[in-house]
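Hello,

Following up on my earlier ticket. Below are the two sequence lines again, exactly as submitted.
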Amino acid sequence: MSDAGKSLALHLGLLALLFALQFVLPAYHHGNLSRIMVLATYAIGYNLLFGYTGLLSLGHAMFFAAGMYGMGLTIRHLGLSPGPALLIGVLSGLALSAAVGALALRTAGVAFMIVTLMFAQAGYLIILYFGDWTRGDEGFVIQQAQRVLWGIDLSQPTARYFAAWTLFATCLILSLRLIRHPFGKTLIAIRENEDRARMLGYDTFRHKLGAVVLSGTISAAAGAAYGLLFGYAGASFATVQYSILPLLWVLLGGAGTLIGPFLGTLFTFYLIDIASGLTTAYMLVVGVVLVLITLFARQGIGGEIRARVWAWLP
Amino acid sequence: MTLLSTRRLSKDFGGLHAVRGVDFDLPEGQIRALIGPNGAGKTTFVGLVCGRIAPTSGSVRFAGDDISRLPAHRRIRLGIAYTFQITSVFARLTCGENVALAVRRRGGDPDREVPAALDRVALAAHRHRLAGDLSYGHQRLLEIAMGLAQSPRLLILDEPTQGLSDSEIEAFKSLIRELGGQTTILLIEHNMSVVMETADIVTVLNFGEVLAEGPPEAIRADRAVQAAYLGTG
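Thanks for your patience. The regenerated structure is below:
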């Protein structure tokens, strides 16, 4: 089997497994996995920029929140149905990432990290400032009656699981196609050596802007879906914590591997889940595991698999 | 027809005048060698031509158009290929992908053209190896293959033979002669045998200025050039 065939088989296999798990998992893990798939989609978006283009953003929470609020506010205040509201959430992320990308990409390296962090902070403060509409920190609930999409009640666990799976599968396959496409290959070239890519005649600014927009839009789709599937939008999703989390997931799972975002999100979610059952100092456990992984598996789980077992892993 | 020309092209780095008022004309199809002692401004000069470095003053024309204000990638798209003096391949990508990036940018067919470009520098066997795993000399050859794969009108080679073995240098000379006539070549070179055997015209830079220009034999006999190289004078 060719390398492309193997990777297609692996990723389709993962999707098939996730699809099948829905029928056997106990309720608790079933709910967790829905959440993990939506958050892993957020990580897929983050990984396109960080793992494949080599740009480290510390402000992705603004894109996640743009999707969540673009969806939530239009349902709450305009009475839109979930379909158009989701679309507006995704478009909000697209517009915001295009604007922020055009400005932030005038910087590079550490300055890019700081500029994205500051934009995200501004976004968070805007949500608080317009508390009359957004209900600030407290957030607002999206009622069950407002979460019926094409006759499917997304507050029901099964429907929610399939919706999360559909979103995750779409974004995973989309990114698999992207990195086989010339545009994706150019992004990898920019990550490896931007100066060389420019001196081959590539407009690296436009490519990087394209990567920010794709990444921001997928993050927004995840944010919009999260709000809709779990029925809540709140300012905590726009805090710096939600910018750091996808970075952690991607680092743990393996930056620049397609399967890494899912592995990292799954691992971190259950690590916190299990550790918090044992001790109130669960973040200490998480911290120690992070340090160990950084010391002994620098490329993350997916990166180590690629280095040791499957060299063809994309 | 003049393919490349510069007028009063200058670059200052603080108080250092790296390139000073260079007027330079390169006719289409010519193989031109650019020589000069270390620090003469050769790499800075070609950096100004292809847009990696912004000039302090002066202009660059390519194929009749003023390209002084174009960013580097636009100049490359007009048909200038630049190979780096300090090897700058995509180390963690395969040799084939390195060349494919050059082919795809101009809309070529990688499946057909990548093997051909690698074959010209005798790297066809290494297509699936990571570029970073190649020997230094082979990385230089890969740089040249990436230049060729762009099918440029002007190929700028910055010290291409540095680190090559004697047999690889011989192969390089015949490659350049083969390209002569189809492609215009601007070659920065320290190896005098390469300069003497391949160049149609040699330009000598010293302290950022054109010291002499002429056929290889005339340059070899030039007293001012000898003095610049020997450091007496």
